[in-house]
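Example (one chain per record):
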Amino acid sequence: MTRQTPPAYMEAYKEAFVAETAEFIHAYDTAHVVMLGEAGVLPAETALALLDGLAEMERAGIAVCRSAAGGGNHAGERHLTATLGASVGGAIGLARSSGDLSAISFRMYARDAALRLRRRVLLLRRAMLAFSASHRDSVFAGNTHGQHAQPITFALWAMMYHDALARDGERLAAFGARANWCPAGAGIMAGTGFPINRKRVADLLGFDGVIPNTLDAALSHDLEIEYASVLNALCYTLSRMAEDVFMWNTTEHSLVTLPDWFIGASSMMPQKRNPDGLQDLRNLSAQSQAALTMVMGTERGPTGYAIIERRNPDRALRALTEGVIERLEVLPDLLAEMRIDTERAEAHANANWASVTDIASAIVTLNGIEWRRAHHIVKGFVRDCIASGLAPSEVTADHFNAYASRCGEFSVLLNDAILTRALDARAFINRRETFGGPGPEAMEAAMDSATHRIAMEADNIDDLAARFAKAAESLAAVVSSTLKTRKFA
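Predicted structure:
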């Protein structure tokens, strides 16, 4: 027997209700009809009937109507055809294609998603700033190569992530600005022979302007790659932060305690406090990398080849977006409730020679020798102490001076006061007043700068959101006035 109907998965590719873009497609349907009526491309009575039908959809619920009509980009046309008849409902498809609908739905969703992500990133930056203010004096040992490196503060760590998140926000803002150009009117590649007004649709929907090349507007999809890349960078920031906290939370480190709501329990071992929330965050980088790989793989090949298969990465990007937003909303609470064992952290910073860079610095200052020579002396001294079982807290100037003499460095001498200050982790930090460093004054300046930058970002986000809201209000006002007067401007 020969199959008569296409397999279900083919239909799912073409038409599926997408809740995330339904309101954007409806807005485009409305703006398109307004433009067609104003330009005289459609008879006024037909355009007015379509606007009546679209307004009725809003009263009944856009999502409800579009879902009942089978979903997908053309659900509005199917609903209007069912309620108003084919001669009226089918008229909404004049001078546009599926390409217009797909391109504009992605761009409207993307600019909205970028704005929502920026808001959540900003909230996390504020939380990082608050965390930094609470822990500007909390000392711990920084790591490189998985080994204790130099003493820093949890404030410096938090401000590092604040600044990384600020860059993520800047990338989202730049992407949102590039997405905010209107493809409507491009058709599938060559526009239309009808005298439409592309700029009018762009203005009604709050776009910054019209994409000038119709082929580019319809069939260039570098924005999907850019969005996946920006999300990937943000997810790597969040994953790296989770990795840091995950390490500190291990039994061996025991520097932090997670709140109960962020951990999971073992089904067998009652003592276990598994960092389930952190493990979920660590996996974000893998999820975002998978989405990026899918997008880039899909967008390969000649112009216009990737059409049907694009639905898969589109779904992946929407799912990733909502997942990242959900996690960004939780992280400020985690930072506020996570407890740090500051005494243990500082003891670690003092226990493993993390401050010995400053012994070399003292030798350079006091004895006038070059840095590399001082570095070599201190390297040998630390190795000798470790071999002898001497901890940093037990070392005296006599130990150092004796070692220097054994090495033939008879002119290199230190006293106990200088050695003690050089080896103290807190004193080490207090000497780091270089711009951007962990010293008290430098950290205060960094937090003041961050406060100012956060305020500027908040204003920018609010202004952009207000612009989009004003465009939606203006479109609604145009429709209301047109339906009231029963004529187009």
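Caption: The mean pLDDT is 94.
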